[in-house]
Each structure stands twice: as structure tokens, then as C-alpha cells.
Amino acid sequence: MLRSSFIIAIVTFISSHTFAQQADEIIGKYHLPNDLDIEIFKKGDKYFGKIIALNNFEDGQTKDVNNPEESRQNDDLVGKVIIENLEYDQEKKQWLNGNMYGPEKGMVFNLKITEMREHEIEVVGSKFILWHTLQWEKI
Q1: Most-buried pick from 38, 55, 58, 137 (CB within 10 A)?
Q2: Burial 91-105 (b: 16+ CB within 10 A, else e)
């Protein structure tokens, strides 16, 4: 009985550790097609992303001038959290149910990350019935 309990504990530990490793593969820095660099990080059991570099984004824009909330239009873009609440789905091996704020349009989109590759990730953004698939380069 003691031996079987020990084996169950070991298997549970290994499987939960493997799950955490797979889920945490997304953590890192990425270059987006709109020239922003972001860093994805974990907070609790969800994943978030903040802008870490602008790379002459939108011809030098540094403030959140397109934010629909007038009081936020003077916020700095660097450091701004633009990805929120991504959750890892172990069965689908995808990060789902997230939101991403696009500062170039001042809009929030649904976000999921569908595939991890060695040097890039595949991202799907959607709003209403429109969706767009992008590749983000790992840096």
C-alpha cells in the first residue's frame, strides 16, 4: 500500500511538472509584425505580455494616443501590458481565452497562440467574425 501511494505521488509530480513545462514554453520575448517587442510572462496560472521596445512603432509613436479612454492617451507604451489572461489548454496544446490590446488602433482583440516553433509562435487574433493569423519571431 505504501509503495503504491509513493508511485502515485511520483507519477502525479512528474505529470504536473511536464504540464507546467509545456505551458511555460510561451514565456519569453517576441518581435511582432507591427515592430513592437513584447515579453510574455506568467502571473498565477495565466500569461500576460507587456511592451518592452517600440522599434520606431507607428513612425515614432511612444504614447497610447489611440486609446479609446481619453485619460489613458498619454500613457507610455513601453511597459504597457497588452496581453492578458491567456490560459494553457493541455489537451489542445494551445494558449486560449486571452485578450490583446492593439495600440495602433486602440482596439482589444481575442487572442490565442496555436503553435510553438523553435524560433516563432503562431498567433490568431480575432474580433467578431474576423480573424488573422500572424507569426511572432522569438528574440
Answers
A1: 38
A2: eeebbbebebbbbee
Q: pLDDT digit string (tens) for 5-47?
A: 555 544 444 444 444 558 999 999 999 999 999 999 999 999 9
Considering the domain delimited by 26-138, tell me its CATH architecture.
Beta Barrel (2.40)
Q: What angle do CA 81, 36, 113 make, to 5 degrees?
A: 65
DSSP lists the bridge partners of residue 110 as 99, 126
pLDDT digits (tens, 9 = 90+) for 93-106: 999 999 999 999 99
H-helix or E-strand spanning residue 3: helix 2-24
CA distance 108 to 127: 8
